[in-house]
Amino acid sequence: MSEPFDRLQAVRARIATAAAAAGRAEDSVRLLAVGKTRPPEDLAALRALGQRAFGENYVQEAEAKMAALAGLDLEWHYIGRVQTNKTRPIAERFHWVHGLADLHHARRLNEQRPPDLPPLHVCIQVNVSGERSKGGVSPEAVAELARAVSALPRLRLRGLMTIPAPAATPEAQRAPYRALRELRDRLGAGGLELDTLSMGMSDDLEAAIVEGATLVRVGTALFGPRPAGAGARLG
Fold first, then answer.
1. What's the CATH number for 3-223?
2. What is the dihedral of CA 42, 231, 180, 10, to 10 degrees?
């Protein structure tokens, strides 16, 4: 068996086991393959095995892969920090944005989304751990931003995303994900329909699924360790 096949099957098995332990259907959790620093050939290998959704952190790197993999019917998710000078290519080229944390950026994405494309799916990034080094809005600020984003016609607010601090135990891993789920539930009770919790990565996807993740962002477990100096923990 090929290495891509083995890795993908192993991740799918982890998702299925975690979902079953939580009393959930396996197909209630989507797998997003995080392709940062990986060559187009690695993404193509997973696409041949049925993986369609891929996440990228840098616009320029993503655009090169989009060109190389044109015709493969891939679903592109932008999972990096949104920057003002990058909103146009994000609005024009991606299907999803997971790191939205600013109304100014939301308005730019809305204005720059081509009218012939469906609305851009967005998740608001929440800094549940309160880390200064992490992007995202505070839990207290989410409701106001979510209501404003939900009113923008070229965006479709789908849910919340977080990248918590690394944790050593399963219970410690679950705590921030539980907080995000409870925040989503409170927003839902207030009238916002949010169907997506983008949370969980290679090291802690089980904890995220138990707490309600609907999408897990996995890189290392699918592609192997990144080269030295390739960047921060993202999948």
1. 3.20.20.10
2. 30
